[in-house]
């Protein structure tokens, strides 16, 4: 029996090329009527030059890029969950991308929380040396929350330190994305606390500095205002849902909203609607059965309490009855014809497990990297107290190798795998 396959498409760059072409043709004809040919060519060339420069500003991670996360507690604690790396590295399944978390609780733009007991190096020199060791192409910075406790009096010092840090990153040819500090105004009761600990003033300064330098900046506080009670843990820290939603928020702000992973099937019309690559589609007329092979464009990363991030399958036109779905010989969902028509969210299956293994591997990599780079190592293993634990110096090198190996595992796990789907009737 004949059938056809429809694929949904997503306009990723936001540009209407046909409309642009028509505008250029119209502009060219008008200019030809009023000026000479050389001037027309020059103006059209400048137009495309400006258009090209604008298009290049789109955020993108390239093959071989390394991202460093810098900041205080909000960055350090992210390594417990791995949501940020999961959501970003999975966007480019065919590119080798690595992440390093250099966050440190209580840290500032001066690296003050990394202070040694000895005089050398300075906290800031240590911070920069750690960044140099990572050799990042992109840095995501989340500073200002600790500094904001000094209120207006500390603003000038913070600005100087931020510019010094950005100058150092610029010398390393590292691009930068700046995050706002968390504002806790809505959680604090005391008028004095609101005055001294409100971080909005510091984000305003961060935004000014970013705009002057042409850097990307993201205010994460709308997420806090709208969902504060759901995503806050103890004290001023985010819970796991908070970090998952924060990662999705940052990704969307950079131009990559969470896309629905829907597979829509109409049995009567013999249509399949999906943005994923499918093959081997077979219809069986007697039992409302079908089977197909599918490879998702991106590995689905289900987020807690975010239904749009979870794979969903909808089947229309079924006869009355119960139906099940097998993926790679594993039964993953069962429902009535009405439930399938409405859409069933997949809670299990090979793709879900692959996503879980990806995030678990990221968490393990971050944990081992933290042990390898933590400032205490310089004191107790490599520094003036090496007589206590110096025997572990070679172990630090072994941890480097293990982190690199886990990077390889992560870049394999993020690649979507082919899935064999079989839809069957339950008698």
What does this 3D model show about the protein?
The structure is a single chain. With 427 residues, this protein is α/β, with parallel strands linked by helices. Helix content is 42%, strand content 19%. The chain has helices at 17-32, 37-55, 73-76, 83-89, 123-134, 155-171, 191-197, 200-213, 221-231, 240-253, 337-342, 350-373, 376-380, 386-389, 393-413, and strands spanning 4-7, 66-71, 98-101, 138-142, 175-179, 216-218, 262-266, 271-274, 277-284, 289-295, 312-316, 322-327, 330-336, 344-345, 419-426. Strands 1-8-7-11-14 form a five-stranded mixed beta sheet. Strand 12 and strand 13 (330-336) form a beta hairpin.
Oligomer: single chain
Lateral arrangement of strands in the main beta sheet? 1-8-7-11-14
Q: What is the residue-averaged pLDDT?
A: 81
Helical fraction: 40-55%
Query: The biggest beta sheet, please?
Result: 5 strands, mixed
Tell me the count of domains.
3
Protein structure class: alpha/beta
Q: What's the total number of strands? A: 15
Low confidence ranges: 1-28, 31-35, 37-56, 191-196, 380-388
Looking at CATH, the homologous superfamily of the largest domain is: SGNH hydrolase
H/E series: EHHEHHEHEHEHHEHHEEEEEEEHEHHHHE
CATH domain class of the largest domain: Alpha Beta
> Over all CA atoms, what is the radius of gyration?
26 Å
- CATH fold name of the largest domain: Rossmann fold
Task: Specify the number of helices.
Answer: 15
* First-residue to last-residue Cα separation: 25 Å
General form: elongated
Reported CATH architecture of the largest domain: 3-Layer(aba) Sandwich
Strand content: 15-25%
């Amino acid at each position: 029996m004949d059938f056809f396959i429809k694929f949904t498409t997503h306009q990723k760059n936001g540009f209407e090329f046909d409309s642009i072409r028509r505008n250029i043709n119209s502009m060219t004809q008008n200019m030809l009527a009023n000026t000479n040919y050389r001037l027309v060519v020059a103006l059209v060339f400048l137009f495309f030059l400006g258009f090209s420069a604008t298009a290049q500003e789109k955020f993108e991670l390239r093959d071989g890029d390394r991202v460093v996360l810098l900041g205080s507690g909000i960055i350090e604690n992210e390594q417990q969950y791995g949501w940020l790396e999961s959501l970003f590295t999975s966007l480019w399944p065919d590119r080798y991308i690595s992440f390093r978390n250099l966050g440190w609780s209580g840290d500032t733009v001066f690296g003050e929380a990394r202070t040694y007991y000895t005089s050398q190096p300075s906290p800031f020199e240590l911070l920069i040396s750690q960044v140099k060791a990572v050799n990042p192409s992109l840095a995501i910075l989340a500073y200002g929350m600790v500094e904001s406790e000094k209120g207006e009096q500390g603003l000038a010092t913070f600005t100087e330190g931020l510019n010094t840090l950005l100058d150092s990153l610029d010398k390393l040819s590292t691009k930068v994305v700046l995050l706002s500090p968390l504002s806790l105004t809505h959680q604090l009761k005391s008028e004095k606390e609101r005055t001294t600990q409100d971080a909005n003033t510091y984000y305003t300064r961060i935004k000014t500095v970013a705009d002057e330098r042409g850097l990307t900046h993201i205010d994460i506080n709308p997420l806090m205002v709208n969902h504060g009670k759901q995503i806050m843990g103890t004290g001023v820290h985010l819970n796991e849902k908070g970090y998952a939603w924060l990662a999705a928020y940052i990704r969307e702000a950079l131009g990559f909203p969470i896309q629905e992973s829907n597979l829509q099937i109409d049995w009567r019309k013999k249509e399949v609607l999906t943005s994923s690559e499918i093959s081997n589609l077979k219809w069986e007329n007697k039992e409302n059965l079908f089977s197909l092979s599918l490879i998702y464009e991106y590995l689905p990363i289900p987020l807690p309490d975010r239904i749009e991030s979870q794979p969903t399958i909808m089947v229309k036109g079924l006869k009355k009855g119960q139906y099940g779905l097998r993926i790679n010989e594993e039964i993953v969902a069962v429902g009535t014809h009405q439930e399938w028509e409405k859409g069933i969210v997949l809670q299990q299956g090979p793709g879900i497990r692959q996503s879980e293994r990806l995030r678990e591997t990221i968490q393990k990599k971050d944990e081992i990297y933290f042990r390898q780079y933590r400032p205490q190592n310089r004191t107790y293993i490599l520094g003036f107290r090496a007589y206590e634990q110096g025997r572990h110096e070679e172990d630090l090198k072994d941890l480097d190798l293990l982190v690199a190996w886990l990077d390889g595992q992560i870049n394999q796990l993020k690649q979507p795998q082919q899935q064999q789907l079989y839809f069957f009737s339950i008698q």
